[in-house]
Amino acid sequence: MGVEHPHFKLIGHRLCPYVQRVAMVMGHYAIDHEREDIRLEDKPAWLEKFSSERQVPVLLLDQTRPLTEAAVICDYLDRINGRALYPVDLIESAEHSIWILRAERILSLTADLVYRAHNEHDCDLTLHRIGLILAILNKKFEAAGPFREVGLCMVDMAYATAFRAFPVLVYGLNRDLFAGFEHVRGWSERLLKNDIVRTVVPQTYHGELHHFIASRQSYLAKRLSMLPVPQKPALSASL
Ligand SMILES: N[C@@H](CCC(=O)N[C@@H](CS)C(=O)NCC(=O)O)C(=O)O
């Protein structure tokens, strides 16, 4: 017998990495739901009723009870479906949670590049911080292989959301973010080919992200605004 769920509505945004992680968990468990994407530049007044921070994702249960914070929503959805996205062993499971926090750190550093790094020096510093996390990841792959041999786990989903934006960063900054981290490069390529990972964003994701970033004020934004949006096959996470 299938699991009984409340009625779910996911309030999201077309490009948001946090929303993508929730959408991947929903895809993994084939959870039936409604989806409404909002514009961050022009948020609906009702959003505040569900998210005091006025952020997405919001998961609405039975139209009334909101859950916010991607990690909390994903863990809730995983728990009600038997917690298959984490290792059974509790210590290993806690270790996966640590890796997920590091993925969130990459997301927040990426947001620094998009919104707050206003010159080349700030960008270099931020890329260096991202590189420190990728170096730890690369060592982990060298020593212990992937997080899960077959299929996706929650760690995979969290990093897939971070890696997906890399081709646009690489293109805009003319820097290979994976240089020296070949295990992570290979993992990222495998993740981004996965059907669940691929299908939670529009096919035009990279072009839309290019425009989204280019309309901000950061150094990366200014560089992207001077570059043409490449055709999809030309975009890669490598130079
Ligand atoms: N800690 C939150 C972060 C979510 C977040 O930062 N969402 C962004 C979109 S990707 C947002 O709603 N930003 C509001 C804004 O840009 O005004 C989570 O994990 O869900």
Automatic annotation (TrEMBL):
- Which InterPro entries does the UniProt entry name for this protein? Glutathione-S-Trfase_C_sf (IPR036282), Glutathione_S-Trfase_N (IPR004045), GST_Omega/HSP26 (IPR050983), Thioredoxin-like_sf (IPR036249)
Query: The organism sits in which domain of life?
Result: Bacteria
One Pfam family this sequence matches: GST_N_2
Q: Which residues form the GST N-terminal domain?
A: 6-85
Instruction: Specify the protein name.
Output: GST N-terminal domain-containing protein
Q: Which organism is it from?
A: Thalassospira permensis NBRC 106175
Q: What is the lineage of its organism?
A: Bacteria, Pseudomonadati, Pseudomonadota, Alphaproteobacteria, Rhodospirillales
